[in-house]
């Protein structure tokens, strides 16, 4: 942890100077650290005042930044001086009579620079000559902690102090490993009291309880809303605020988080922003609680996310949903791990590590289309306002995508396909004719099932996966370049329950530039199975690892040949290659985009979004937008085509797409090192199918240190944007927003800079106090 370098200020900076005696028994009474004292003002209840033993005398000097303590008697060597940085104090008090006239300082110096070493509470009490003197000092220190402007001429008294801050504390008792209430008692409430903060604490009783509460309460009564939980509860609070008719003022109320969840991404970002080393559990909690007590609020971007409708009710078709997100949108690997690792909840944050290993062992890829609006483009509004001059499109495409453009498209590997990578060998090369053949072939039930059987036959048992996990390159890397699919067609998403609907028809241009799934008119009817999505509502779920480590209930991923067509060839020379046509390339939505060769075209109606039913009735409860919701001026409605200029589109098979707007994806996952709370950007990371398991694992390991951007892999890309649209083309998958499941289907998002306010402590710029 960083701690300010102590320095001896010039005497001119002194605000107060006075003499104090030690308080407590014994000759070392003034070094009275009481880390285990109960809460309240340092455990200094008047009745419990120990016998005074003024064995030592001290000279205290208060400056704007420090309290200098000099022992006057008995004079000893090096212990005689102490410098207390005000930046490490959470509060100060002068206990009322009949307690002696004490100046009590609540000091939380940071732990040593070692992972996991927590800040420790040290209570220091000094006996003043008189009560008014003790009160004057207490008022002076509190003025400095609360940011009241003072000088050496200030007459310090309590009247200078702003009223105590009032916080609404919302606790999810089941978050993380269910320790939130315990930590409230042992860590949070004592520190909050020492900071002279008033509070009301409410335990949530069910999912969406906080959201409903926040929609109703009178906000002016509170200076801030603090979540004592994981990121999910803050998601509820943000959306509760945005669903109020007075959302414009409501969303400006400072929000804070005290991490008691499993992931604690925002807390990790706050901890990092304050300059502290990465830490977890109680050390992280103490850091965040300390920063909260210090005050300090910074603007925070919110991202407006429009998701597909949930299941229709009573025959009425549902409409797209809008919600507000402070953390992330994830599709593929990351959301899978998030949701599937619910079963390991008892492990705390280790659940994600285990979930990652399990998912890497059975790696899946998902077909989809990702479009984004790069930040460098000063865009026009989708309602037709003429665009200002902009940078050449080709530049915005290639930025951050060099490796991406160079990479040839490969067949994607099956998650079980270590031994069975040749599962499709009989079907390749998958050129135009083969694509046609495939189109015809998969129209029949027989072919479909046969292919599925072939795939299964060629799948590796899990023991082989374990043995070969880190030895085998991914399928795409092994493939013979000659046999690479120049234009793949998704022919292998053969789960027998393929389902497409057409609530969001694409415009002709988009349709025509896209090879459709041949299953559009599949004879297989969709059997709506209640997915386990969104059903993580019955928390807590104390599930043991042993019970679930072998759970393999997830549907097997079947390999697919993917296709991405670029209507315009890659414009960057770096993308030029003999295999250019087989590259998975970013696709500018230029008006002049040409359709792919008719040979590859399928009927215009054959491309659709796939919307699988979501079973989450609780999480996806109807939500009420305010009358005048903030407008997504960069985005057309979800069922309309994107603007034809400025946007970049990438289509193909993805292992993951992650949109992050905080620096951390979990307290120990520094996934977007460049992100700032209010940078007005969405940081996109996407990983293409074809990446080897070992590389993916390396990526996540590097993410812990935030060094993954230097990991060179043609399958991994990092770009920033201000808006994006994600269109999953695989029938199954999970989409999460802030770690919460949302209906699977097309989704789009736009950043709204500095919309909310986050309590982050005093470090950083643009800090205001709450
Ligand atoms: N009393 C409650 N009972 C059950 N669920 C609750 C309750 N209070 C809140 N929830 C829901 O629990 C879910 C998880 O909460 P939260 O995200 O805060 O904890 P977590 O999942 O342990 O942490 P993280 O998101 O950091 O991994 C949220 O969707 C929230 O809405």
UniProtKB/TrEMBL annotation:
UniProt organism field: Muraenolepis orangiensis
Protein name, entry field: sphingosine kinase
Gene Ontology biological process terms in this record: positive regulation of apoptotic process; sphinganine-1-phosphate biosynthetic process; sphingosine biosynthetic process
Gene3D superfamilies attached to this UniProt entry: 2.60.200.40, Probable inorganic polyphosphate/atp-NAD kinase, domain 1
PROSITE patterns xrefs: DAGK
Keywords: ATP-binding, Kinase, Membrane, Nucleotide-binding, Transferase
GO MF: ATP binding; sphingosine kinase activity
Positions of region (Disordered): 20-50, 469-488, 498-601
Low complexity bias spans: 21-37, 542-566, 573-601
Locations listed in the record: Endomembrane system
A cellular component annotation (GO) from this entry: membrane
E.C. numbers: 2.7.1.91
Domain DAGKc: 162-309
């Amino acid at each position: 942890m960083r701690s300010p370098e102590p320095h001896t200020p010039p005497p001119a900076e002194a605000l107060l100077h006075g003499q104090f005696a030690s308080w407590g028994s014994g000759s070392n009474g003034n070094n009275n650290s009481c880390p285990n004292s109960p809460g309240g003002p340092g455990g200094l209840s008047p009745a419990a005042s120990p016998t005074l033993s003024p064995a030592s005398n001290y000279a205290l000097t208060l400056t704007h930044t420090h309290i200098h303590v000099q022992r006057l008697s008995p004079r000893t060597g090096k212990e005689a001086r102490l410098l207390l940085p005000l930046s490490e104090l959470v509060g100060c008090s002068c206990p009322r009579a009949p307690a002696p006239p004490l100046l009590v300082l609540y000091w939380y110096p940071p732990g040593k620079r070692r992972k996991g070493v927590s800040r420790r509470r040290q209570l220091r009490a000094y006996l003043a000559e008189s009560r008014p003197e003790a009160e004057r000092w207490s008022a002076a220190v509190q003025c400095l902690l609360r940011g009241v402007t003072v000088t050496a001429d200030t007459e310090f008294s309590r009247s200078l102090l702003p009223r105590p801050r009032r916080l609404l504390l919302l606790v999810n008792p089941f978050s993380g490993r269910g320790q939130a209430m315990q930590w409230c008692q042992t860590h949070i409430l004592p520190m909050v009291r020492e900071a002279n903060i008033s509070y009301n604490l409410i335990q949530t009783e069910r999912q969406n309880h906080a959201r409903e509460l926040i929609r109703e309460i009178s906000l002016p009564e509170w200076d801030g809303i603090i979540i004592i939980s994981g990121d999910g509860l803050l998601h509820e609070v943000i959306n509760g605020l945005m669903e109020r008719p007075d959302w414009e003022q409501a969303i400006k109320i400072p929000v804070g988080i005290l991490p008691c969840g499993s992931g604690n991404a925002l807390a990790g970002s706050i901890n990092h922003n304050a300059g502290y080393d990465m830490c977890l559990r109680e050390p992280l909690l103490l850091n965040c609680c300390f920063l909260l007590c210090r005050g300090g609020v910074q603007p925070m971007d919110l991202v407006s996310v429009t998701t597909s409708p949930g299941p229709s009710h009573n025959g009425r078709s549902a409409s797209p949903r809008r919600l507000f997100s402070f953390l992330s949108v994830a599709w593929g690997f990351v959301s899978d791990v998030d949701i599937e690792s619910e079963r390991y909840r008892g492990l705390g944050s280790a659940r994600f590590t285990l979930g990652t290993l399990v998912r890497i062992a059975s790696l899946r890829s998902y077909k989809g289309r990702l479009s984004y609006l790069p930040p460098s483009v000063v865009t026009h509004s989708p309602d037709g306002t003429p665009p200002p001059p902009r940078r050449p499109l080709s530049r915005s495409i290639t930025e951050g995508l060099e490796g991406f453009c160079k990479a040839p498209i490969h067949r994607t590997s099956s998650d079980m396909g270590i031994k069975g990578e040749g599962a499709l060998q009989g079907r390749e090369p998958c050129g135009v004719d083969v694509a046609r053949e495939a189109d015809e072939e998969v129209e029949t039930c027989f072919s479909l099932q046969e292919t599925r059987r072939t795939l299964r036959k060629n799948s590796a048992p899990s023991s082989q996966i374990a043995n070969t996990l880190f030895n085998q390159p991914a399928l795409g890397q092994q493939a013979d370049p000659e046999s690479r699919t120049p234009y793949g067609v998704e022919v292998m998403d053969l789960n027998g329950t393929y389902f497409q609907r057409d609530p969001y028809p694409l415009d002709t241009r988009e349709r025509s530039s896209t090879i459709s799934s041949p299953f559009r008119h599949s004879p297989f009817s969709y059997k709506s199975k209640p997915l386990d999505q969104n059903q993580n509502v019955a928390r807590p779920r104390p599930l043991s690892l042993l019970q679930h480590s072998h759970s393999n209930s997830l549907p097997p991923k079947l390999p697919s040949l993917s296709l991405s067509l670029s209507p315009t060839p890659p414009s960057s020379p770096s993308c030029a290659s003999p295999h250019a046509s087989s590259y998975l390339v970013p696709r500018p939505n230029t008006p002049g985009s040409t359709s792919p060769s008719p040979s590859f075209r399928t009927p215009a109606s054959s491309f659709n979004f796939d919307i699988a039913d979501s079973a989450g009735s609780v999480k996806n409860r109807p939500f009420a937008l305010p009358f005048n919701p903030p407008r997504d001026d960069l985005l057309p409605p979800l069922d309309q085509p994107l603007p034809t200029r400025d946007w970049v589109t990438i289509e193909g098979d993805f292992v993951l797409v992650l949109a992050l707007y905080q620096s951390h994806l979990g307290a120990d996952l520094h996934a977007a090192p460049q992100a700032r709370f209010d940078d007005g950007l969405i940081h996109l990371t996407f990983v293409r199918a074809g990446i080897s398991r070992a590389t993916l694992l390396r990526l996540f390991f590097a993410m812990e240190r935030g060094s993954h951007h230097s990991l060179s892999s043609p399958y991994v890309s990092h770009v920033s944007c201000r808006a994006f649209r994600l269109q999953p083309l695989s029938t199954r998958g999970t989409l999460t927003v802030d770690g919460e499941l949302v209906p699977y289907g097309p989704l789009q998002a736009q950043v709204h800079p500095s919309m909310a306010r986050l309590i982050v402590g005093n470090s950083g710029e643009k800090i205001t106090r709450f």
